[in-house]
Amino acid sequence: MKRVFLLMLCALSLMACQEKKAEGYTITGTLKGDAEGARVMLSDEQAFPPVKLDSAIVKDGKFSLKGKIDAPEMYSLIIDINEPGTEQPDYRNKKFKVNFYLENSDITFDGDVATLPSYYYNPERKGKPVIKGSASQDLYNKLKASTQEASEELSKLGNQYVKEYFIPENEGKDATERGIEIVKAEKEFAGQVKEAIWKFIRENTSSVVAFDEASYIIKGYTATPTSSEIDELLGLLEGPWAGTKRLEELKEVAVTTRKLAIGEPYIDIELLNTKGEKVMLSSLVPKDKYVMLEFWASWCGPCRGEIPHLVKVHNKYKDFEIISISVDAKENDWQKAMKEEGMVWTQLRNPGGLEGDVKEKYNILGVPTCLLLDKEGNFYKSNMRGAYLDEFLVETYGK
Questions:
Q1: I need a surface site. Which of 27, 35, 91, 180 has the fewest CB within 10 A?
Q2: What's the pLDDT at 116?
């Protein structure tokens, strides 16, 4: 009888703990450095406009936040040590943002304002806070640990790309060979990161972390997916996330991204040629040739910076077709830029600027955007700029 009574007490204690955990979250924070009086805000920065959940003032290096959320999700902890009412706040040295997975549990946050990541990117601030008590955040940390080595190599290669390819090319020097070397190395490490992420998703499909990683792939945040990749990811999520609003919304996004997925045929749209005549894109896409659709604008600095490279490509690779599609709202701006840059290949303009078909059908939200079509007119590669384009051209046509 005594044994039964003890078992009942244990069961009741366990239920009490579970109920307490479900009541909400408590974030107990500790900040080192000059943080007295700092303003702390917990915010959903993914919402538009951002939604504030709670706020606090740092006292004696500590703060506390409380609340309740429906389900674990990525939120942002924003810490501001600027003087209240500052006309021009310092977003790189005195305002900080840490993204983490919040859930209804007791969470601790331990950081140093001297090294915390800034609200606007500052490469000199490399410190990371220690966050404990969130199982979802622990899982996210595990994923990041599995990709850390390859990600660090990619970061180094990114810096090398700028210093050893991009800058020399803009100075009129030929750095093609070095650029291709860097791009090939990037492919290797990017492949390692991708493999680790896919493995994580397959092993943790019920986790919000895996769901978010899958959604990033489907939305094409890092690279354009294939239709089969989109289908596989939705299939993996279907079991644990069936019937949820989150999955239904992702399926709606997938309808658009699938149309632009690698391997899918390009989408025909109506544009204007240099004479102001309406033409269908299909009337100008040649058969049996690789074709690059280059979306640009006269007001876009990076677009203009890339054009001298495209001039060289056009002159050197006669079997490679470039079709430039401007999103300039004003025809005069477009015509002037074409003449200044010597753009003698096929030139078209979307009369609606960044609106209309380029947005609705091609999901072009910004420029430059460069899409490569294979010889059958299917989407083949994306991010075809600089040495990434050079690498493809050399492999395909030779030097």
A1: 91
A2: 95
